[in-house]
Amino acid sequence: MFFRDIYSHSILGKPKRSSWDMKTTLVVAALHAIRFSFRNGGLKLWRSFARIPYLLSNPNQYHSASFKVKKLGLPGILSNFDSHESGTREVEAHWLLPLEESKNDEGKIIFYLHGGGYCAKDWQAYYTLNQQLSKYTKRPVFSLSYRLAPETRFPGALVDAFQGYNHLITEYKINPKDITIVGDSAGGGLAIALLVYLRDHAYPLPETSILISPWVDLTYSHQSWVNAEGHDYLPSRPDFNALMNPARFYLGPEQYHKLCRHPYASPLFMEDYDNLPPILIQSGGSETMTDEVRTFADKFIECKNTMSKHEEYEDMIHDFQVYPLSKSDVAFLNIQKWISFDIKRPRKLYSTNREII
């Protein structure tokens, strides 16, 4: 498949998507080859592969910020998990400091939640997004490694996300209005779930949030999970895969059908998105989650007071910002513009209609 795609593009002049340059074709072909090689692999194999960027990285550029969680008396769906905290459990976290910090944004930070289907840590996305976010925004990035499924099921990741956010506010004394929450893929779904939990229980909200290819529907019910198989690198319809089904890992096989539409697991099914901070959504036009992200973003049209913007990047794949593609730089520049300028403008200047880039 790898050589077929290269031949089709370079010799026949027929890329899989009309807007793809050769670099995009090479990147996607390589990702497809990896997907094919691991098609019969289980979670242990995928986790081992996802760890390779960590083994090749320079850990000295990150500063350990792991912390012990506290029993906080959390209400609602998190109360049961919270009641079992003894004060001894530690959550892994890191700071990445910018080479040059913005004087205009002094004290402002990014709180980053990684992707990986809630069952793995995507180290490639973790490192790339951390570094690019720090570079373009000139802000420190605080990255949290929440507990993974199936060892810890829903809503364990949400508990850890709340603990990280609370830690920034109480221990680092960071004003919530100086925090931008960023999440990609499963981390994007986790970010919006955190925002709604904060709103629902009257906790202080951050300044803004950026959702990159957010996974917001764990039912796999949208058609793009099938249609995008030839373009995107994520496996088509994981719900048909007995070995690698992230949603079932996260929710538990016996609870999947009961919980797959729970709004804190699948934020697409939230009752409303009112009274949230400004939200920027970025997604690819040829990814497996294209349809669910469109449906999710369109729901903000009904909001009375939540400012939002949806940028869909034509022909781009899931989490395309992680890879050295021409539109990746454009996306990061738009993130920079969003947090430094756009959210300060009157809401009436923004439409929740989709912007194709």
UniProtKB/TrEMBL annotation:
Q: SUPFAM superfamilies of this UniProt entry? A: alpha/beta-Hydrolases
Alpha/beta hydrolase fold-3 domain spans which residues?
110-321
Please provide an example of a Pfam family that matches this protein in its UniProt record: Abhydrolase_3
- Keywords attached to this entry: Hydrolase
Top-rank lineage group of the source organism = Eukaryota
Protein name per its UniProtKB record: Alpha/beta hydrolase fold-3 domain-containing protein
**What organism is this sequence from?**
Mucor flavus
